[in-house]
Request: fold
Amino acid sequence: MFSPTDTIVAIATPSGRGGIGVVRISGPGSTDIARAILATPHALRPRYATHTFVRPASEPATPVDTPGAAPREPRRDVAGTRREVEPGRQLSAPGECPLRPIIDVAHPAASEKFVAAQDSPAGPDAPGVSRGSSPASSIDEVVATFFPAPHSYTTEDVIEISAHGSPAVLREIVRAAIGAGARLAEPGEFTFRAYLGGRIDLVQAEAVGDLVDAVTPLQARVAFDQLEGTLTRAIAALDALLFDLVAKLEASIDFPDEGYHFVDAPAVVATLRTTRGGVDRLLDGARLGRVIREGRQIAIVGKSNVGKSSLFNWLIGAERAIVTDIPGTTRDLLRETIDFDGVRVSLVDTAGIRDVHDEIEREGVARAHQVHGVADLVLVMLDASLPLEADDEEVLARTAKVPRVVIVNKVDLPRAWTGGQRVDVPVEISLKTGDGLSALRDAIRRALEFTEPRVEEPVVTNIRHEGLLRDAGESINRALSGLDAMGERLNEELVLADLAAARRAFEEVVGKRTSEDVLRAIFERFCIGK
Reply:
């Protein structure tokens, strides 16, 4: 898939303009490339921020300071004034400013004013300080940081260049690095190298992608817990139980003549039941974990003018949908993603269900019917001020077998019917007065079956992990069934076969044994630069 021997480069910050953008270079040639494109007069000091300039790779490299070398002649400006550039100044002490401008060394007073200005409210642009200009043909003024192997994100030599956040500037820096010998990184290649280097396992690598994609604080928290190794440690503890049991069973096989068993059948059963219990606990939280990671889709349905768009606007906290007294205002599906008490929810407002002749509105109604089958939860809206009509009955019939919350709106108006008529226990609200909205939020939370997990509790959020853990549990169950059939007579070979299958599943979760196709599928969903 990826070549781990190339030196790669990519923009590591999101697309678009910003105050700062970061270009990351990783690989065995990182320092050579940095020397080719950076105007620093000396090698980058590890883990120090160095102020410098980026130039196109075609320009000659600035000579690197070497011990015993003669001092370089200071630069001269057009007027002949001697000026010394300090683009390689190191951030060597807390609070020291690395972004030193050019200092006029021919006028010590000016230099003294500059140093004083660094600590004054006026800043480095105070009167009397001469800043000069950047080296010719520079792409940008930057701060470069060198992270030597193996103490870097990828476990390789890494150079991170913090520049101004113009996409054009960042692309030019990448182009300069490519001109100096780097290759544009593939999606997820930096994290893939961290995985290959043993800095993180596969669960943690997937957590990096989840953390980048997180929409809600809860998603970010759970992803960070996995990145910190909570799930990895839980699986490692279960695998350690099986590893110890396998060692004892294999020892019994290795010494058949002595007739000595290093472990008896009851002890094997006890260990396997403990391991299966741990797997079951992880799987019990898998549904909640997938709700957190993947989010849920909620559709609002009902006939025209029951308040669907008003509810949509209330849930998203903005006037997104047009609300009028004219039937059929919403003709297509309106979608918004919201944070609903920590769950990422894709909220869908649908066209009113009614018999229509307008072709566009008819298509909107058809799409409203389609969304019933794919939504995780349907909010069925009824109007308390009007008798139940055929359109209401149709909506109730179509949603009878899907998870739903029935909402009776406009309870502030005179009632035309009561909630007990052919309707499961509804939530009564008034979007005009706000009555019942707190109860509605609680009802939606219950319908989503969501409870926030404890901090640092291992949570299975990934369907790949869930499937492999189920495989491990099935292998352990087969071993237990075989032991029940054996009674007191222990057949180590049969038990070992099932335990080996369970351990393979554990190893696939964390990536100790994973096919290239799986790795490609995981890392290709990452953004370039991560």
The chain has 16 helices and 14 strands. The CA atoms of residues 471 and 505 lie 7 Å apart.
